[in-house]
Amino acid sequence: MILENARGEIKKVGSSCCQAYTQGIDGALCSEWCAVYNDVVSMSVDVNEHYDEDIEVYWRKIKDRPVTLEFMMILLAYLIENKGYISRSKAQIISGPSTADMAYTLIDDVLTTICDTSLRENEEWESFFDNEKLKKIIPITQENIATALNAIKWCSELTDQQCTSSYLYNLRELSRVKLLLKYSENLGMLASLIPTYLKYKNEETKEEQKEKGEYLNEVGDRIECEAILQEHKTYQAMNYSYYGNDDITKYIYLFNYQNNLLIWFTTKRLNITDGTKIKLRGTVKEHSMFNGTKQTVLTRCKVTSI
């Protein structure tokens, strides 16, 4: 990095010094921000000198407008809730886009729609996304916003002792950044923050269920409640029939209702993402214990997302 100081002297600053000064943020990224800032300044000059220019058209020309971390994470939370988390390695296997790649497209669509330069930290996000144009592109929910902000808070507050791997350490440093470019090379790692946080939250819920969980209703009773799809698992089982034997896929769905664990074994696949609030109806089949946790086993269930 080359700079001219207050005395008019030209100095060369090494990358490690830049990184120390910017608290770990890459120096090249900072220079990109400077370039964006220059675009903002030049835009203000254009508007003053050429007031008849369409300001919205001008903003659409800006390629790398920085966005806040909160805004980026809310979009990622929405994508993961609706499409699941797809890492770049998994995307190569299925020959499809990763969560980060889908976010690139979505960010362009959103920023082109709002043409807004006021994205900032601690934005009133619920009112921001309460926009008829935006709702047609990305119907953000309160749960998406809460998940994103809680994930940032959880990760940014991790201690050095809790960062048990270089991945967690790097993720923590990223979660403390306020602004980033929409084409940031770190978007792939940021996308993994949501499932990492949900996994941590799930483990925390399991501990509470183990300590405080109770059986629900009596065997044979019908149960109807609003719960959260805590997680689901799949396994292959042998199907024995008159026509021969073959493998079938079976699913185990775990639901959390007020820190009580409900479980359903079925061959039916639910098109619902883990962490989603759902309405559940079913019959209590049995009460059982697994790894010290009381679980109410259900059968003949009907599950719909709320």
Describe the 3D structure:
By secondary structure, the chain is of the alpha+beta class. It folds into three domains: about 1-55, no CATH class; about 65-210, no CATH class; about 215-305, Nucleic acid-binding proteins (OB fold (Dihydrolipoamide Acetyltransferase, E2P)). It is about 45% helix and about 25% strand. The protein contains twelve helices and nine strands. The protein has helices spanning about 15-20, 25-50, 55-60, 70-85, 90-95, 100-115, 125-130, 130-135, 140-155, 165-175, 185-190, 195-210; strands at about 1-5, 10, 65-70, 180, 220-240, 245-255, 260-265, 275-290, 295-305. The strands form three sheets. The chain has a five-stranded mixed barrel. A two-stranded antiparallel ribbon has the order 1-2. The chain is elongated, with a radius of gyration of 25 Å. It starts with a strand and ends with a strand. The model is unreliable at about 45-55 and about 60-65 (pLDDT under 50).
In terms of structural class, how would the helical and strand content be classed? Answer: alpha+beta
Element order: H for helix, E for strand? EEHHHEHHHHHHHEHHEEEEE
Mean pLDDT: 80
| Strands, total number | 9
Structural Rg: 25 Å
Biggest sheet features: 5 strands, mixed, barrel
Major beta sheet, strand line-up: 5-6-7-9-8
How many discrete domains?
3
Tally of DSSP helical segments: 12
Q: How large a portion of the residues is in β-strands, by DSSP E? A: 25-35%
Q: Which outline best applies?
A: elongated
N/C terminus separation: 52 Å
